[in-house]
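Q: What would this chain look like folded?
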Amino acid sequence: MNTILQRHQEFCQYQIVFKNNTPRTIKWFKEVINYFVKHTEVYHIEDVTQNVIKQWLIHGKCEKNWSAKTIRTRLGNVRLFFKWCVARGYLEKNPADDIPAPKLESKIPKHLTKEQSTLILDWAKCYPYHHYYEKPRAVAILAVFLFTGIRLQELLNLKINDVNIKENVLFVQAGKGKKDRMIPINAQLKRYLEKYLAIRSKINNKSVYFFVSLICTAQMSAEVIPRLLRKIGKKSGVHIHAHLLRHTFAVLMLEAGCNLFSVSRLLGHSDIKTTTIYLSATVHHLQDQVSKHPLQ
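A: My prediction, written as structure tokens:
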């Protein structure tokens, strides 16, 4: 019989070779299918039914409080796998095909105000760090998030050659979806980066990565940034995380008058429709439009 995990391994190899999926995407595929098998206790493809998948999703909603977005992505994940199984002759019919995906909630993306953004930058400058090197690095990290809208993993992957201070350009290599993009560096961000680079050259100038640790030339640990944001958030009283800062960049840029197409390019969105969600958070833009009402 065909075990789910055996066929899923073949599926992942296919996605790597023919779909050019990233290691992160493959990891996500595996996490979802492993959780599916563990929870349902269904180990063979032939035993997977529509009801098995529905009960798994119901459990996720009722017991794990999965959001509509989580249910949609996990349903899409297993549906893609079983579609591949049908194409290979391992299944006659895709058991996930007729399961409806829930509608997404229309929520305004959470973001910081301009004042809150300035506040957390100020706290990053005066936080009592253990090592003098940590201050310019922390300020530079926060500034890159706020002034570029970069994703967490993209920031961690930045190489020293990706940040061109002379030409005022930050180059994101193989971002989400393996897409490259260039983001201009404005004058304020440039000053923060120059201060960081001046200290970096004294501490750790052998690493290929832009943001480095104190003790080695390897890539900075992924835990450094969430830990930093928790510290600054606690001191400032403003809860922050990396993706919130990305939302903040988008909203502040739109409120400042930047057009939607440019914001979409800066964020690295494949579809401009993804960027339109931030319009719901741009109150100033709406106020300008309402002021044009002919009855005023």
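The CA atoms of residues 264 and 273 lie 9 Å apart.
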